[in-house]
Amino acid sequence: MPNSPVRSLILAASRNPNLRDALVGAPITRDVVKRYIAGETIADVIECTRALAADGLLATVDRLGEDVLEEQDAANTVRDYLDLLDALAAEGLTDSVEVSVKLSAVGQSLPGHGQQIALENARTICERAAAVGTTVTFDMEDHTTTDATLDIVNQLRVQFPSVAAVLQAYLRRTESDVASLGYSGSRIRLCKGAYKEPDEVAFTSRSDIDKSYVRCLRALLASPATALIATHDPRIVDIASSLIAREHRASDTYEFQMLLGVRPAEQRRLAADGHRVRVYVPYGSDWYGYMMRRMAEKPANLALFIRSLASKG
Ligand SMILES: Cc1cc2nc3c(=O)[nH]c(=O)nc-3n(C[C@H](O)[C@H](O)[C@H](O)COP(=O)(O)OP(=O)(O)OC[C@H]3O[C@@H](n4cnc5c(N)ncnc54)[C@H](O)[C@@H]3O)c2cc1C
User: Fold this and answer.
1) Looking at residue 31, what is its pLDDT?
2) 139 is catalytic
3) Residue bearing the CA closest to ligand 1, atom 32
4) Is the minimum distance from the CB of 232 to ligand 1 under 6 angstroms?
5) pLDDT of 201-236, one tens digit each?
6) CA 248 – ligand 1 centroid, Å
7) Is 275 within 8 Å of 251 (Cβ atoms)?
8) DSSP alpha helix (H) spans, the chain
9) pLDDT of 121-145, one tens digit each?
C-alpha cells in the first residue's frame, strides 16, 4: 500500500497502545466495526459464515489478535482456534470455511524460542484443521517476518500440503517468491500488503505496487499453483478474470478473496459468475489493529469511524 502521509499517520496510530486503550475501552458503537468483523464470539462466526455460505461464498476465519507477548496468550489463541474448528465441524461448515492465522498471535514474536513455539502452535492448529476436513492460511505480517513465516509454512507443508502461504506484492522480493513457491499443489494468497514498509524492501507508490501485483499475478496464474487472488481493486479483478480465461484455469484452481464488509456486492457478482470467492472473516474483541489497517486503506472510513465513536461514546 502506498505510503501517503494520512496512511502513515493511521498506521502509526495502529501501533499506539494509549490510543488503542482509549478507543477500545470507550463504550463505543460497533456500527463501523460490525461491518468488518463477524462479532466477538464463535456463535457470531457461525452465523456469519452460514449466511455467506447461503450466498455461495466461502470463508476464512481469523481470530483477531497479534503480537502476543506472553506464552500463555499464544496458548489461548491456539485454544480458541481449536474451539472454532470444532464448532465449524459441528455445524457442518468445514467444506466452505477454513481459518487464517497470524504467527505473531501464536508466539512468533516471543523472545528466545518464539519461532519454535509458533511452529508447534501452528502445527497443533493444522492438525485439528486436517482432522475436521479443512485447512489453514498463514497471514503475512511485516517484512521482518517474511522469511521466518515462509520457513514455518514450508515445514508445515511436509505434513499438511494444503496449507496456504501469503505473498505481498508491495515487497520487492515477491516476484522471486512466486517463482519459488509456484509449484503444483502449492496454495498462494497474493495481496498488495497492509503494513508500513521502507523503500529498501517495498514499492511505496500506488502505481508501482499495482504493477508489481499484476506481474506477480501473471506469474502465479501461469504456474501450476492454486492462486488465491486477494484484492478489492476493480482493475486487478478485471485483469485476473482475463488471465484466468486465457490460462484456461479450472474453477477449483483459483479463488478471489475479499474482506468481510468490503465490496460485498462484487463478492456476490463474482460468485454468481461461477468463480470461487472466499471472504476473510475476522472475529474477537481485539479488533483495533485490524480496523486501523482497514482505515489506512480507505481514509474516508476514518471520518465515519470517528463520527460514530463521538456520537455513541
Ligand atoms: C482476503 C484477504 C487477505 C489478506 N491477507 C493479508 C495478509 O496476510 N497480509 C497483508 O499484509 N495484507 C493482507 N490483506 C490486505 C491487503 O494486503 C491490502 O491491504 C488490502 O486488501 C487493500 O488492498 P486492495 O488490493 O484491496 O487494493 P486498494 O488499492 O487498497 O483498493 C482498491 C479499491 O478497493 C476498494 N477498497 C479497498 N479497501 C477498502 C476498504 N477498507 N473499504 C472499502 N473499500 C475498499 C476501493 O474501491 C479501492 O479503490 C488481505 C486482503 C484480503 C482481501
Assistant:
1) 61
2) yes
3) 233
4) yes
5) 999 999 999 999 999 999 999 999 999 999 999 999
6) 26
7) yes
8) 5-14, 17-25, 31-36, 42-54, 71-90, 114-131, 146-159, 174-181, 206-222, 234-246, 264-272, 288-297, 300-312
9) 999 999 999 999 999 999 999 999 9
Q: What is the end-to-end Cα distance of the chain in Å, rounded?
A: 31
Fold of 38-286: TIM Barrel (3.20.20)
Q: 226-230 and 187-191: which strand pairing? A: parallel
Element (H, E) at 279: strand 277-283
Q: What is the pLDDT of residue 304?
A: 59
User: Per-domain residue ranges for the chain?
Assistant: 1-37+287-313, 38-286
| Residue 77 in this model has a pLDDT that exceeds 70 | yes
Taking residue 20's Cβ as centre, other Cβ atoms within 10 Å add up to 16
Q: What are the CA-CA distances from residue 137 to residues 50, 125, 291, 310 (Å)?
A: 20, 11, 20, 36
Would residue 80 show up in a list of annotated catalytic residues for this protein?
A: no
**pLDDT confidence bin for 35, thresholds 50/70/90:** confident
- In the numeric block, the cell 484452481 is attached to 253
